[in-house]
Design goal:
Layout lengths: L6 E6 L4 E6 H7 L8 E10 L5 E3 L2 E5 L14 E4 L5 E3 L5 E2 L2 H5 L3 E6 L6
Length: 117
């Protein structure tokens, strides 16, 4: 994989906003970045139903009524843990295949930085 294919997002706790960059950008700006004020997460390289890039730390919901997840004892929203895993935000149950197989049925509604609930 090329360095430009690794995408990251950093939440700046001072200005309360995200900055987006690639691994190549980090190499070019490493001395100018104030690492101590940033929470950095990586892209899962998956997109939600609206075509938005899903990052670790995003809060997602299922946005497809045809998806049968009745066998799962889940609540409506999940935190993205990594490129495969979701964590139920209420029960803390972890699932390692839903994001991989159903990312196109998920919708980003928030993230762990801007929604501290």
């Amino acid at each position: 994989m090329r360095a430009t294919e690794f995408k990251f997002r950093a939440y700046n706790n001072i200005v309360k906003r995200f900055q987006y960059f690639t691994l190549e950008d980090i190499g070019n700006m490493k001395d100018a970045i104030q690492w101590h004020i940033l929470d950095i997460t990586q892209s899962t390289n998956k997109k939600d139903v609206d075509g938005n890039e899903i990052y670790v730390g995003d809060i997602v919901i299922f946005d497809d009524n045809s998806l049968d997840i009745s066998d799962k004892k889940w609540h409506p929203s999940f935190e993205v843990l990594n490129n495969l895993g979701l964590k139920d935000v209420e029960t803390m149950e972890i699932d390692f295949d839903t994001l991989h197989y159903y990312s196109n049925k998920l919708k980003i509604i928030s993230n762990i930085y801007q929604n501290k609930q």
